C-alpha cells in the first residue's frame, strides 16, 4: 500500500507547463521531479490520477533510498518522451530482444545495486526498466555453474546431501 | 536437546570411544541437515534472494535461451536449469512457475515427463 502524506503547496511548485512531483525516499530525501519524466511509472501515474481526483497535492513516499530513486529518475529522464513497447499496457509482450545499448551502460553497476534497481522498478511499475535489469542479471548468471552462481550471489548451498542426490534433482534438473 | 548440545555430546562420546560408526553417521547426517536449514535461513536474508518471485521468474525466463547459444543437446536438460540447483528459494520459484517449463526441448524420457509435469496446464 503506498504511503502518501499531504504537503504544503509552497513545497511543490506545480503551475508550470510540466507539473512537479515531490518524491520522498526511504532515507527521507525530498526529490522534486517533473511529472512528465515519471509518467513512465504506472505507479506514479496512478498516484497522480488520485491527486487530480482530490485536487490536493501530495508527496509520494517511496520505500527505497534516494540513491536508487535517482538512478530510476535518470532512466526515466533519458527516455522522456520516447515510446518503449514494454511500457505500453496495450501492446503485446516484446520478444527476447537484447538490452539496449544505453541501458547496458546505465546498468553497469554492482550486483546489489542492480537488484535494488529492479525492485524499485518493479514497485514503480516501470516494465521497460524491470525487463532491462532482468536481462542484465540473466546475462550475469547465464552459462555459469551452480557454484559460480552461488559465488556471484553470495548464496550458500542450503540443500541437504539427500536433496542434492535425490533422483528428481540429479536426473531431471 | 538442542542440535548444538547434541554435537557436544557426540564429541564427548568420541573422546570416550562411546559411539560407533553408524551412530556417528547418524549424527553427521543430522548435523548436515541442521546446517542446510541454517543456510536456508541465512540465504533468505540476502538482498540477492529478497526479490519478489515474479521478478525471479522473469530473470529465469531470460536465462532460458540466448540467441547465440541455442540449446542443441537433446539428451540433457538445458543449461538454464542449473538455477534450480542454486538454493531452495530459486528451486521453489522455478518449479512453481509453469510458464518456464512449457518448452520441451529434449528426447530424454524422464526429463520430458518431468518438464510436462512442471508445465502443468500451460499450453506448450
Helix coverage percent of residues of chain B?
40-55%
How many independent structural domains of chain A?
A: 1
N/C terminus separation of chain A: 38 Å
- How big a fraction of the residues of chain B is strand? under 5%
Order of helices and strands of chain B: HHHHH
Radius of gyration of chain B: 21 Å
The structural class of chain A is: alpha+beta
Instruction: Describe the sheet with the most strands of chain A.
Output: 4 strands, mixed
CATH class type of chain A:
Alpha Beta
Instruction: Please identify the oligomeric state.
Output: heterodimer
Main beta sheet of chain B: strand number and arrangement?
none
Strand content of chain A: 5-15%
The averaged pLDDT of chain B comes out at 79
Morphology of chain B: elongated
Rg calc of chain A: 20 Å
Dominant shape of chain A: elongated
CATH superfamily descriptor of chain A: Potassium Channel Kv1.1, Chain A
Poorly predicted ranges of chain A (pLDDT <50, ≥5 residues)?
Answer: 1-16
Number of strand elements of chain B: 0
Structure description:
With 173 residues, chain A is of the alpha+beta class. Chain A has one domain: 2-Layer Sandwich (Potassium Channel Kv1.1, Chain A), CATH 3.30.710. Chain A contains 9 helices and 4 strands, in the order βββααβααααααα. A 4-stranded mixed beta sheet of chain A has the order 1-4-2-3. The longest helix of chain A has 15 residues. Chain A is elongated, with a radius of gyration of 20 Å. Chain A starts with a strand and ends with a helix. The N terminus of chain A is likely disordered. With 124 residues, chain B is mostly helical. In chain B, α1 packs antiparallel against α2. The N and C termini of chain B lie far apart (51 Å). Chains A and B meet through α5, α6, α7 and α8 of A and α2, α3 and α5 of B. Chain A: It comes from Artomyces pyxidatus. Chain A: This is E3 ubiquitin ligase complex SCF subunit sconC.
